[in-house]
Write a structure and sequence with these properties.
Radius of gyration: 38 Å
Protein name: Sporulation and spore germination
Helix content: 40-55%
Keywords: Coiled coil, Signal
Largest sheet: 5 strands, mixed
Structural class: alpha+beta
Oligomer: single chain
Shape: rod-shaped
Length: about 220
């Protein structure tokens, strides 16, 4: 801004000197009208630039004050939380296998699918499960999870033959599935119950009886 003012002063002084010189050389003819016009146009242009800079300067001051008023001006990091993935001992005792980190404001159904992916990978030999939806039933929010049976290829894992057989194995399966999705110790917003299906059908096997009905939290 100071530079612009100095330019204006310099131009005015130049204009005065030119007028004086022109008067000496031309006498009553006066100053060169074209030169005067050019200098006047430059003055107008510089004054406009100066006004624009002043306006920009004021806008920056306002922005600085707003940042100060809102806090430090630093970007706020997104909050995250850790959710455990559970397995079970042979006696059915729940054990934490691993945990996942999710954004606190992540949609609840997305959190459920993340748990499903990690649970299938870590506890159920890579078997797939889909968190389908959360439905309100009798005032309660119920999560629906569909277990996808394995391919049937040799060596491929199977819900029916690997995890629904035997009282011990069935108990471990029920514990891992129900406790991972119910997250009983979680204090935030969560579902009230979980309902499992196998390839879209009701699960009816002797050693996983609890999977045939909705399991409440």
């Amino acid at each position: 801004m100071k530079k612009n003012m100095l330019k204006i002063v310099a131009i005015l002084m130049s204009l005065t000197l030119l007028a004086a010189c022109s008067n000496k050389e031309n006498g009553s003819a006066g100053v060169n009208e074209d030169t005067v016009k050019q200098l006047e146009e430059k003055i107008v242009s510089l004054e406009a630039d100066n006004a624009a800079l002043k306006e920009e300067n004021e806008a920056l001051k306002v922005e600085i004050e707003e940042l100060k008023a809102s806090g430090s001006g630093e970007l706020i990091e997104e909050e995250e939380e850790e959710l455990p993935v559970f397995g079970a001992e042979e006696d059915g005792t729940m054990t934490q296998v691993i945990s996942i980190v999710v954004k606190t404001d992540e949609p609840l159904l997305n959190k459920m699918q993340m748990l499903a992916d990690k649970l299938g990978e870590e506890v159920f030999g890579g078997l797939t499960m889909k968190a389908l939806e959360i439905k309100e039933e009798d005032g309660k929010n119920i999560l629906y999870v569909d277990l996808i049976e394995g391919s049937g290829e040799v060596g491929a894992k199977s819900w029916i033959y690997d995890y629904f057989q035997g009282s011990t194995g069935g108990n471990m399966t029920e514990t891992a599935l129900s406790e991972t999705f119910l997250q009983r110790e979680y204090g935030g917003i969560w579902v009230d119950g979980v309902h499992f299906t196998l390839d879209g059908e009701k699960i009816e096997f002797d050693h996983v009886p609890n999977l045939s009905d909705t399991i409440m939290r």
